[in-house]
Amino acid sequence: MRGHCSLEVIRPCNLRPKYPGIVNSIAIIWSQYGPYHFARLSALRQLARPISVHGVEMADHTADYCWQRDSTANSIVTLCPGALYEKLPFWTVFLRARRELARLAVEVCFLPSYWPKQSLATLLAAKSLGIRTVMMNESHAGTSRATGVAGRLKRRLVGLFDAALVGGAPHRRYFTTMGLPQTRVFTGYDAVDNEFFARKADEVRSREVEARRQWGLPDRYFLSLGRFVEKKNLSTLIRAYRLFLEANPESNIHLVMVGSGEAESEVGKLAEGYELPVYDKKRAGREAASFRCLKPGVHLYGFRQIDDNPVFYALAEAFILPSLYEEWGLVVNEAMASGLPVIISQTAGCAEDLLEPADPWNKMTPTECALLSNWDLLNKARENGFVFDPKSSHELSRVLLWLEASPGCRRAMGQASRRIVQKFSCGNFAMNALLAANVALTPKRSQETGSKPISAPVQA
Questions:
Q1: What is the pTM of this model?
Q2: Residue 203: inside a domain, yes or no?
Q3: What are phi and psi of 58, to 5 degrees?
Q4: What distance in Å separates the CA atoms of residue 244 and residue 331, rounded to the nearest whole number?
Q5: Phi, psi of 345, deg, nearest 5
Q6: Each residue's pLDDT tens digit, 93-107
Q7: What is the CATH number of the domain that holds 204?
Q8: What is the tally of structural domains in the chain?
């Protein structure tokens, strides 16, 4: 562990840009680096050359994610190696962040919001050195909980940032209402390595029979992948799947659920309560096995590393995210890059940006359009899938029924997913991050409030 440092002796090495208006040294800090973060850091480093881009994490362990790390972890700085992020003391993070930012001569620092206390510590460390700060944030009006004094404090903390890099349109709207000028709020924060998921999914499809046998995957299934926690609303998903089978007893489509968390045991009990077969697949894929399940049911695969996920995406009929609320939902990016139609809660932060409006009458058969109309789904259909009310298992079940009956539309929606998700590539993240960094170096002006946002080019 590194030793303590004194506030009086730390000074930034040289915070003045070599070229006016152009940043020369950037730090991008996350609580812990995982696959998503390394992909974005790599894209930013590649696009920013010869600018120095430093990856910094507060800790190399968190309670929520058990990511495996490879040699890429050597390319970043860990403030508190061996420590658990959630247990980090405020002053330890503050002092070590301040020392490292000064040592690296950072001019602009990207920070993971202003809270919890560990993020606040990095923000205050950067401000104490005179470093310009860019807030990375996925909050939107649907996830905001701060009111009264807490709301006023939040607005003050947001005002400490010089620019922001957020998820999409609802996130931009939210932070402009929090006082950030529109010209300083950029989108594109939420990105995954689209090429990785597309390539891996295609590879799995090319050896479909072998992959299904190795992983014990049913011939047809809907997919849910993510943490098993309350906000993911998995009870609605399971009930909707039960209703789907009741309405179509001849269906052979199963429900595959990948993930783990505090609600893991409840998911299995809930499925059993609805008299659904539950298949424990936590060992599947580690050793070749055959799971020939005649009766459709719920398959539980547990937590999987990101390299395993394309197997599940590649062979699914569609991907479902039923969250009651969601800051964004990166698993939707993954599913879309893998070529799947997506069924997304209308309250998810990504729904507005990742599901494009569609005119069903132009692309569907009269029968398919009639079903949409009869089931009151016309205003829920999108170019690459559906949105739905997360409190209505009946509405979700109708979407599932429609998708099963429309194989041609499923394929077309999957193709549209791959096209649409390119707007949220790691390359686009890097481009907008650089724009945010350079805007952060310019002084704030009161007349910026109410002006139109800078429109950054989109990189495919």
A1: 0.89
A2: yes
A3: -75, -40
A4: 23
A5: -55, 135
A6: 999 999 999 999 999
A7: 3.40.50.2000
A8: 2
